[in-house]
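An instance noted here:
***
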Amino acid sequence: MAYVGKTFQYMGRAFWALALVCLPAAIVLGIFTVPMASLSYFVSYASSDIGGFTDMFWLFFSKAALRHVYPLVLILLALIFSVSLALSVIEKHFRVGKLMLLSPLKQINNYILPLLATFSILTLILCLYGMVQTGVLTLLHFLVGGKGAPGVLNLVLAAVISTGLFVLSVFAACSTMYWTPMMVIYGFSFRDAAASSLRLIDRKTGGILLGLLTPFLIVAVLANVVAFIPNAVVCIVLGVFLYLFLIMYIVTYIMVSMFDLMGMERRDAKARIGGRRRGI
């Protein structure tokens, strides 16, 4: 959990730069999807008449994103741009001690292909997780309460099972967050990055997992609160802010934890200390 504090500290220092580069992805995601839908569906579920697998499925997946091609394309392009640029900005800041946007923009191409490979695996994990969750909760719904709106027991069991499945899915995807920076910074192949990332987190898997779960759980709780708001436009705006926080945290957490685990020198910290001393 030590990386959580370091992540928030860096986010505070580099907030405006990170917010600027992460905002495009946050806007697109906020328009077409619901933040943490797999854990923020309870308000909709409580008032839904569940008649089968499909009714449960649409609680977790966006109809607008899946019934048309362009939302998925826009989401993918926005994510690749924002995450690539954010990782490049943070890497440059850690290496040279200066927070710059122009120089990382020239290196954004280095991250595109590694990110595509990583996103492909993460998409498979996400789809598998969503299908398993939908199937399990549909079966549970009919076993406990039968067809129609869920009862209190249904909601409680759904919350417990959904949280457990989400933790398992994040655990399964935990090492993937280091693939892209390893392929870019060290020049690893996809296979080498996958193997090295497993060894990297081997001794600190629990702490890394808890640190990675932290923003998702925060966003899930807030997204459930937002779901009570009847105004769709307000929900979208708030969703954009939740996605912005989530993306900023994840990209920062990846680089902060990787630099520490790999024993790499961070010059941004030295530059900050030096600046303070000069100010004195």
